[in-house]
Design goal:
six-stranded antiparallel beta sheet, STEEP1_dom, four-stranded antiparallel beta sheet, STEEP1 domain-containing protein, mainly beta, Metal Binding Protein, Guanine Nucleotide Exchange Factor, Chain A, 10 strands, STEEP-like
Length: about 140
């Protein structure tokens, strides 16, 4: 028995590089209260249980060393995911040492990423923007 097809939502860096494909649209994801980033669950390589959500960050480079961020209630180690084309930070992962179940470990957690607000553009919105640019060019209107 085959599973029903899911719609794949794609998102690009503001430089137009494809960086995210997911079955869950961004507005449907929960957000962190500290910085309004979207919480993106990532598939576990060791999990064999089926899930209704799938996501993949593509064309990104994750920092090898964490950046320590000072927060009102302490510090946080973040590994930034940067666009492979323009190196804009589009997401981050937290350090394993910040969680009770992995306190003795270090390195980026691989089961969740936090998408930075304003860094991603929906493919459809990007297409509409390009179409609008083409229409503006046809009529000879200059942007101010």
């Amino acid at each position: 028995m085959s599973s029903p097809e899911k719609t794949i939502h794609t998102y690009h860096c503001i430089c137009t590089q494809l960086v995210l494909a997911t079955t869950t649209p961004l507005p449907s994801l929960k957000t962190r209260t500290s910085d309004s980033s979207h919480i993106l669950p990532l598939p576990s390589l060791s999990s064999t249980s089926p899930t209704s959500h799938y996501a993949s960050l593509a064309n990104t480079i994750i920092d090898a060393k964490p950046t320590v961020i000072r927060l009102e209630d302490g510090f946080e180690k973040r590994y930034f995911h940067k666009c492979g084309r323009c190196e804009l930070s589009v997401a981050y992962s937290l350090d394993k040492s910040q969680f009770d179940d992995t306190k003795s470990s270090s390195g980026a957690r691989e089961d969740v990423a936090f998408l930075i607000p304003g860094g991603l553009v929906d493919t459809e919105d990007m297409k509409r923007g390009k179409d609008m640019d083409a229409e503006i060019a046809k009529v000879g209107v200059k942007a101010t």
